Amino acid sequence: MSTSATRQDIVVGVDPREDWHPAVGWAADEAHRRGLLLRLVVAVPPLHEPRRPGDLPRHREFEEAATRALEAADAWVRERQPEIRTTATLLDGVPAPTLAGLTREARMVVLGSRRLNRVAEFLSAGSLAVPVSAQAHCPVVVVVRTARSTGRPPHLVVGVDGSEPSQAALALALEEAELRGCAVRAVAVWQPPVFSLRGRDAPLDAEHRLLAETVAGWAEKYPGVRLSHEVVTGSPVEALAEAAEHAEALVVGRRGDGGYLGMRVGSVVHGLLHRAPCPVITVPVEERP
Predict the structure, then answer these.
(1) Which residue from 104, 160, 239, 266 puts its CA 20 to 30 A from 81's CA?
(2) How far is the C-alpha of 41 from the C-alpha of 33, rounded, in Å?
(3) Rounded distance between C-alpha atoms, residue 198 and residue 201, angstroms
(4) Hey, CA dihedral for 54, 62, 16, 76, is it positive or negative?
(5) For residue 56, how many other CB atoms are within 10 A of its CB?
(6) Residues contacting 228, CB < 8 A, separation 6+
(7) What is the pTM of this model?
(8) Residue 144 has pLDDT above 90, yes or no
């Protein structure tokens, strides 16, 4: 299996039913920064058997819409980033497992988000953000909007808790920041217990020490990236979403192996995919040979 360092394409899912511009634009800019091929794809679900009246016309209509969306997205990318190489492919298959399969060979997969509620997310055949993020073998970017101009210096936020997934997230955040020429803000979240016989200061001090140990050494590896770190208090989802309010992206590590139907990504990641105000980059732990 190829490693992330040898994979040579950025894959972006083009949704014919929604505005694909934010996700495709993010992916095109990323392909340009990294000098990689951009692969635009649409997965067309197969017809169910037995077929009901009207299934075939609707299927053909979706295929035609998918083809038009791919052609439009490819033309738009060529105007936005004329120097990058692109391919546009119509794939046969259920969207989520088809896109998840592409993560085995991609450097990064970029998706848009329709911000479905949990029931719609579970039942919809078009739901991609959670199941693809849960099963991915490479980083997955879920783009909820285009970047807003805030007047603040550009930066990325990365959630850090000392775990192996958060180390992978920190590594990608610094790599991404170096490419973008921006800063990284590493954030650890401490959630006070409801009842505790110990004082507040001791566990909070331990959290500060853990965060400092986690980021130690990274500044030397990325001397051109300004790296700051802080501990905030509160619910992890709410605190990280608030910290990322003005960020170019929020980077988090992924726990779990997909779970039942590939929907398990961990409660924090799942919550951030619904709540974060900026693109969310989910980073799996690199597979060992």
Answers:
(1) 104
(2) 20
(3) 9
(4) negative
(5) 11
(6) 183, 184, 185, 186
(7) 0.88
(8) no
